[in-house]
Amino acid sequence: MRVFFQEPAPHTGIRTINAGTLCLALLCVLVSGMTWAQPPDPADVMGKILDEVLAELRDKGQSNEEREADIKKIIYAHFDFRAMSQLTLSTNWRKATPEEKQRFVDKFSRLLLATYIGRVEAYTNERVEVTGRRIKGERAEVSSVIISGDAEIPIRYKMRLKKGQWLVYDVVIEEVSLIRNYRSSYRDIVKKEGIEGLLSRMDEKLAEMNAG
Q1: pTM above 0.85, yes or no
Q2: What CATH number does the domain containing 166 carry?
Q3: How many Å apart are CA 177 and CA 29, to the nearest integer?
Q4: For the sheet containing 127-136, what is the strand order?
């Protein structure tokens, strides 16, 4: 038996919506919501991060400690240090205990921050431009260049989409990947001294950086 929605008398001013129209309306709402939920362009995200970092570096009204603390907040908000740690340890990540993994993430993030901040601090008065980006699914690579006189220093940021946010998981400075660089040296240390030996070496390096 076919069921019809009866249309009320014209004088009521009310029109019954049939099931097909209702489904179409709901679909339009869902599609509209999906459109609004689209993630931002990774190039725009990276440009904003760079602008914020350079603004901090050029701010002469605060101490070095305050400036470094502000830069760390920016970096921690936009860098996926757990993913970076996992990529750096590679197969050794699976061999580490949960406690060792957490300790490694903590120490490695501090080492990367010190390395990154040390590099960008050298370019305080130069101009930085985002020159392009490539997106493939939930991965992206944003290219930038630091212009210093006639020299151009290329820096590429590899990013991944996580919960609607683009996060950096590797930085390639002058064609040298931070992740690949650390992975090579850490692999040798773990092979000879184990994870605990690597963590001890990282403590030594952090102490050396803090002393300097």
Answers
A1: no
A2: 3.10.450.710
A3: 44
A4: 127-136, 139-148, 151-162, 165-173, 176-177
